[in-house]
Amino acid sequence: MEQKELLERLVETKENCYHCGDECPDNSIRLIEKVFCCNGCKTVFELLDENNLCNYYSIDKNPGTTRKYHTKRNYDFLDDADLRQKLIDFSNGVKTNVTFDIPQIHCSSCIWILENLYSLNSGIISSKVNFLQKKLFITYLEKTTSLKRIVELLDSIGYEPLLNLEDKKEEKAKSHYKSLYYKIGIAGFCFGNIMLLSFPEYLSINVAQHEELKKIFAVLNIILSLPVFFYSSIDYFTSAWKGLRKKIINLDVPLALGILVLFLRSIIDIAFLNGAGFLDSLAGLIFFLLIGKLFQNKTYETLNFERNYKSYFPIAVTVHKENKETTIPVEKLKVGERIIVRNNELIPADSILIKGNANIDYSFVTGEAIPVERKNGEMIYAGGKQVGSVIEIETIKEVSQSYLTQLWNSKAFKKESLSEESGITAFSNLVSKHFTYAIIALSIIAGIIWSSDSTLAFNAVTAVLIIACPCALALTSPFTLGNTLRVFGKNKLYLKHTHVAEALASIDTIVFDKTGTITENGTANVSFVGKELSEEEKIIIKSAVRNSAHPLSISISKFLSAERFLVPTNFKEETGKGIEAEINGSVVKIGSKNFVDAKYSDEILSTQVFVSINSKFLGYFEIANKYREGFAGLISSLEKNYNLVLLSGDNEGEKENLRKLFGSMAELHFHQSPHDKLNFIEFLQKKGKKVLMFGDGLNDAGALKQSNIGLSISDNTNNFSPACDGILDSKSFNRIKDFITFSKTSKKIIVAGFILSLIYNVIGLAYAFSGTLSPLVAAILMPVSSITAVVFTTLSVNITAKKKGLL
Amino acid sequence: MQVIIVLIAASLLVALGFLAAYLWAVKSGQYDDKYTPSIRILFDENKKAKDTGKKSS
Q: Do A511 and A638 reside in the same domain of the chain?
């Protein structure tokens, strides 16, 4: 038994790369009893070993990322002063601070190595990682090193930074986050001390003989309440004012009114009426409200919901001008310039191919992983990625005017926020409107009732406004939605904002993209069309395709079962065409129709790979899409209650299959360009539909943005995803129905919470109307109602989530 | 009762001290990243030289 275990472990250590943990194809690449899957991984190890940084490998096992598919990039553009200025945070000429986004950060070893960068480059003074945000902060000396060298170093150890100029906006959001912390701290501090100083009042201790003591307490309370009123609560006033200017009565209007009345009445009470005021209630109210805000603002720091095409596109391009190659920032690229695009580089603008073999992988744009071939003089659209040799292209449009990037000029990208423009008004805003009118009416009535006694009238009117201050109401929706967001997050649906969770409940139309959204990436249904293959032929074909990293080869290799493999004696892969190999004396050709020279004519609807052995045509593999697991079940559960639409950029090859899947009611549209998709969503919305859209590629970006809710599907949430309202991990794709029903439940919980807090308001109003609201009653009623609202919503969300199997 | 005033002043002073400490902590970025420091503290500074010496030999 033990021996077997030992053997297993031996096998394991033998087969997994010491650097990245990937399986090694053979054990040929080794160095001091360590095995590597590729030379790239070995090089990283050597570099670290030389610098005594092998601790990297002892903190976590196989901490690296594979270098198999790594291609060396040219970072010369980082020497451009303009560009460098945009990338760095701050420089005083001697020291420079820079922040990098490094998606590869995933374990403690990553933190360790990145914080020990100074051992690899003496110019680096300090480097610090933010693990959750996957960011690296570096301070370096301009004299000893340069930005280019640091980026090259990071790239060489497998932490290639994402360079784009879009990130600077985040800084603003961060400082907002900080100011909320300040506000909470100050409000909490003042709240505690004001409560302490109000204790004599709560306990009705007779302080008559210590009249000056009471005065001192009251004055101290006023001083303590000033920062709360003028600093901590300022957001409620600005938000209420903004709402009023747009003629929207949001929930902040009655809140701001309540806060203002609380403050003024307390000052008057203390100054003229020898009372104690309600300053404790004021500070408590604001403290609780801010905590609710903190809870609501908690989002997924690691995820980026705001990516636009600029984050995908290169920030610099190589321009060929007067026989010289120079790098310029992509923004300065003009029409008619010749640019050089190397292997794995993106095409920044619509262009015409001038020189070279273009093989464009449009997977960013369409989700299709199979590269297409282009000939000289043909058009190449922006967003494609060149695979293979160097090409030279001439731009015919500016970056922002290109076919794909034009999407971002459409008005969908100029709309402000989800709740304001898309027709879904937050429920709380709807309530607050009526609520505000009601309390104003009630306070007027109270004033009229007591009109004979001016002091009592003042007391009653202000008391109504104070007690009606909807703090429980204001806490209900952030806590319900915040908890809902957490429940969704646990189930791998990451929403950008709590509004989205609320809006999800009122959806009536669901739109799907095809490739990459309802189909699985990387897996496919393969079938062979032609005469049945003999065992011998299967072995030959499989031996050939397993040497190729092309997605189609991988699919075929998975599909074919063969007993053994042979090593090809001659292996040649022509990008975009196919592979040719000599195995056991027979020449096998696998690839496109022209490459294989197949005499076969049929209208091409699906992806086909042709095969010939010794120039004899055998048939072709048909590679069809594979739909995500549980997709059929999902559709049948959705079709009763929702309008379903499919928008595909692809051909109609799969129409029959999809019709069966979607049922007769659904609308299926093919050959949809990114603009068509956007327009179609707009068309649906004009008919009054509330649209939820699922997409994945850049081509869906416009439609996702235009939709009431746009969710992007991702196999790996750290991967690229276009701007959207939320990211759904593909593993949870079949639970969409559960998410929608749960958001409806949340909405019901909000309503219940509202009713609960209204009951408190009614109780308080009884006191208020009689004009006898004592500070003690207010001090009890406010926190109690707030806390019950928080407890009620948190518990009910969690309990219902558990019942529905979401927790 | 004069003593109450002194006590209140003292307690407010202490509380203000804590508030200042909190504000400083937020300002110096201690609330920006609440996860990485928990890992960083486990790294052994001296381990680096010794450990690798053994391994590469």
A: yes
A473 shares its domain with A495 = no
Most distant CA pair in chain B, distance: 77
State the DSSP H helix or E strand holding residue A255, giving kind and residue range, or none if neither: helix A252-272
**With contacts defined as CB-CB under 8 Å, which chain A residues touch B12?**
193, 220
Domain spans of chain B?
A: 2-56
Claim to verify: residue A682 and residue A708 sit in the same structural domain: yes
For A417, the token pair is 């926020």
On whether both A295 and A179 belong to a single domain, the answer is yes
The number of domains in chain A is 6
- The alpha carbons of chain A give a radius of gyration, in whole angstroms, of 33
**Which residues does A705 contact at the CB level (< 8 Å), separation at least 6?**
A412, A413, A415, A678, A723, A724
pLDDT tens, position by position, A435-494: 888 888 888 888 888 888 877 788 788 888 887 777 777 888 888 888 888 888 888 888
Give the contacts of B33 (CB within 8 A, at least 6 positions apart). Answer: A130, A131, A132, A133
Closest residue, chain A, to B51 (C-alpha)? A55
Which CATH number goes with the domain that contains A689?
3.40.50.1000
- Tell me which chain A residues have a C-beta less than 8 angstroms from the C-beta of B15: 189, 192-193
Q: Are residues A507 and A649 in the same domain?
A: yes
- CATH code for the domain of A565: 3.40.1110.10
Q: What span, in angstroms and rounded, lies between the C-alpha atoms of B41 and B43?
A: 6
Give the Cα separation of B21 and A232 in Å (integer). 18
A525 and A506 within one domain: no
Q: Strands A691-695, A709-714: parallel, antiparallel or unpaired by DSSP?
A: parallel
Give the chain B residue nearest A134 (alpha carbons). B36
Q: Which of A106-110, A421-425, A470-474, A735-739 has the highest mean pLDDT?
A: A735-739
Average the pLDDT over A217-223 and give the result.
Answer: 89
A515 plus A639 within the same structural domain: yes
Q: Among the three residues A104, A138, A163, which one is the final residue of a domain in this structure?
A: A163
Question: Residues A523-544, buried b or exposed e (16+ Cβ, 10 A)?
Answer: ebbbebeeeebeeebbbbbbbb
- A129 neighbourhood in chain B, CB within 8 Å: 36
Residue A545: pLDDT band by 50, 70, 90 thresholds?
A: confident
A55/B51 Cβ within 8 A = yes
**Partner A contacted by B19 (CB < 8 A):** yes
* Tens digits of residue pLDDT in A729-782: 888 888 888 888 898 888 888 888 888 888 888 888 877 777 777 777 777 887
Chosen domain end from A596, A626, A656: A626
Inter-chain Cβ pairs, chain A and chain B, closer than 8 A: 77
R_g of chain B, CA atoms, integer Å: 23
**Alpha carbon A454 to chain centroid, angstroms:** 57
Task: Assess if residue A87 is contained within a domain.
Answer: yes
Domain that holds residue A116: 76-163
Q: Which residues of chain A are within 8 Å of residue B4 when distances are taken between CB atoms?
A: 213
Q: What is the ipTM of this complex?
A: 0.81
In a domain, A65, yes or no: no
**Does residue A240 surpass a pLDDT of 80?**
yes
User: Are A189 and B56 a contacting pair at CB < 8 A?
Assistant: no
Residue A716: band (very low, low, confident or very high) from pLDDT cuts 50, 70, 90? low
pLDDT single digits (tens) B34-45: 788 888 888 776
In a domain, A406, yes or no: yes
Assess whether A515 and A633 both reside in one domain.
yes
Average pLDDT over residues A72-99: 79
pLDDT at B51: 42
A802 belongs to a structural domain: no
Tokens of residue A87, six digits: 């990338």
Across the range A261-275, mean pLDDT stands at 85
Are A749 and A797 in contact by the 8 Å Cβ rule? The answer is yes
Question: Considering chain A, what is the average pLDDT of its residues?
Answer: 79
Question: Quick one: closest CA in B to A106, which residue?
Answer: B36
